What we know:
Layout: H1 3-21, E1 25-26, H2 36-50, H3 54-66, H4 97-110, H5 117-131, E2 140-141, H6 164-172, H7 178-187, E3 193-195, H8 200-204, H9 221-227, E4 237-239, H10 251-258, H11 264-267, H12 273-284, H13 289-300, E5 328-329, E6 335-336, H14 339-352
Antiparallel strand pairs: 1-2, 3-4, 5-6
Helix pairs in contact: 1-14, 2-4, 2-5, 3-5, 4-5, 7-10, 7-12, 7-13, 10-12
Amino acid sequence: MDSKAIFFVIIIFHHHFTSLGSQLQVGFYSDTCPFAEAAVKAAVMEAAVVNPRVAPILLRLHFHDCFVEGCDGSILIKTGVPDAEISASAHQGVMGFDVIAKAKAAIEARCPGIVSCADIVAIAARDAVALAGGPTYEVEAGRRDGRLSSAILASHMPEFHDSLDTLRLKFFEKGLTEADLVLLSGGAHTIGTTACFFVRDRLYAFMGANTSDPAISPALLPSLERQCPKDGSPLDRLLLDQVTGESFDVQSLINIKNGFSVLPSDSILYTNDTTKSVVDFYSIHKSSFAGDFAVAMIKMGRIGVKTGAEGEIRQVCNTVNLSQQRPRFTSTGSRLISDQLLLALLFLVLFCFY
């Protein structure tokens, strides 16, 4: 058989697999499950009636999912896996699983085996941001669900007590820049609450001493001390944005500049020339924040995604499928085809060249 012919066949099949699995796309379910995004939005809206603070909950869920094993829904797995990822201390307080499960159930009832839990998490985060008054944007879809879930894998999550160099490294490892760090960390904290546990050292034991963080504005310190007294419960909660509350706006970055940030991981963004310049930029060019935040969210949503023949489409989001599903390649004019069939076709083509 001619070696050029063999090379040609191999290139064709390599291109087939990589082209199917390499890209996310807007409107991925427009043919196969056009109902999907509406179902997710309905679940988010319904949850917001019960819990008005569901927006930051779903935003945080998406962030935590993407930073461990990529945006593959692995954070949702709770059953059938010992020491699942969600049990990691870095994921403490992450919620929103019921909203994802409700959206998934509604979608499965009409489009079984089509829409991944990972995509539902990404779409729900977008709808949550919009619900809070933030930007809306087109969500690229086509992610498949991961089958691996381990608490050990969450050891590189960004933490509230990380140094700025550590935070920068953790973002760089995911293909994100310092501007993304400012937007997705400090900027995202425009909505939501945190526990006093994450603030108390700044108030009463900064750098191991019996004092407060000098970066905290004197105008804010008494208020934080009232909300998180030294002998109070570490589980008491306070707003991340102490100025405009739950409004989605650029105020959280202005707070960093003015010494009004709550978390140490936000305050530290003003201690480096590069991140400081990003904070200063949005403090001046406020109208640029929403659009740039949306771009950063889209970029984060591409981290480590599984597409094409990778992963699976889970039937239920909190557990992997009992048996490995055959790969489902879904796109405009989608079709199902197994690896075994493609290999059979490859051998047939090779045989024909003799």
